[in-house]
Amino acid sequence: MILKIIFIYLLIFLINFSFKKLNYLKSSTGSSHQLFANTSTPLSGGVLICFPIIFFFSQIYIEIVIVYFLIFILGILSDLNIIESPKKRFLYQIIIIIFFSFYLELEVLPSRIFILDDFLMGTFLSFIFTSFCLMVLINGSNFTDGLNGLLLGYLIIIFLILYDLKLFETLSIQRENFLLIIQILFFVLFLNFANQLFLGDNGAYSLSFIVGCLLIKIYNFDNNISPYFIILLLWYPCFENLFSILRKLILKKNPLNPDNSHLHHYIFLFIKSKFKIKSLWANNISSLIINLFNLIVLYSGSVNPHNTSLQIQLIFFSIILYTFIYFFLKRLTK
Length: 334
What we know:
Radius of gyration: 19 Å
Structural class: mainly alpha
Number of domains: 1
Distance between the termini: 53 Å
Number of strands: 0
Order of helices and strands: HHHHHHHHHHHHHH
Mean pLDDT: 88
Helix content: over 70%
Number of helices: 14
């Protein structure tokens, strides 16, 4: 097992080194993934994670893996600037995910909101609702991928909670395989913090998609878990997206276009100016602070994942604190 891990780590390092030397999948000027770094850093994070995900999950969920790969390819085309238009990327995402939800009859139900359940249950609208949830997650995850380790660290927290609660067993995934995926994610996270790679759209899209699908499957298999526990696990990228859309609409901006007015940007600017440290250190520290908060919140919810009241309280607490800090820091940076 140790030799296998060493071999995988060495392979990941060599592949990423090759991407960097060949100047392939490099960050383009103006890309949100290289906001605090130079353009020589490759967008290879999703590539390095893609093959282990396909290998370990294809034997159990081949349909999900196929769609995961399509989402991954869409991200690659975005990173290569072959599909530059955010509208086109959004349209392709909708087509892929709606077809996938219908084909697999994937539903985020029951929600325990009786009016909503009565309206959606047993209708095609339930699949539209599931597609909407996945779209919010995918694009929100892409928005949060603006600091080294922010998105990847957040998703690792979710994997660790699923491992701690043994919820991966619900998915018929072997313990050794699930643990190996977590270890691979940690190694890629280390390279991300060292500014050796970024996740890119390929990683942000595909990783958040697979995590969303796994959480939906877990809830479908075990309705005793509160649906609000699943919402809590995904609150940060989802709220980041919904908050950004609302903010841009108020400012009469295109909600699909990226910008540098997210919470993590303001935290970065505050730490950099307050403590007079280099951009990379301010970048990594900002990411760690945000994910430390998310770790505390998500772990608190995992203590009793069946308690809906607890999950709702944690969700509202996180949203209120996010909003307060956002406007406080925004005012400070002016």
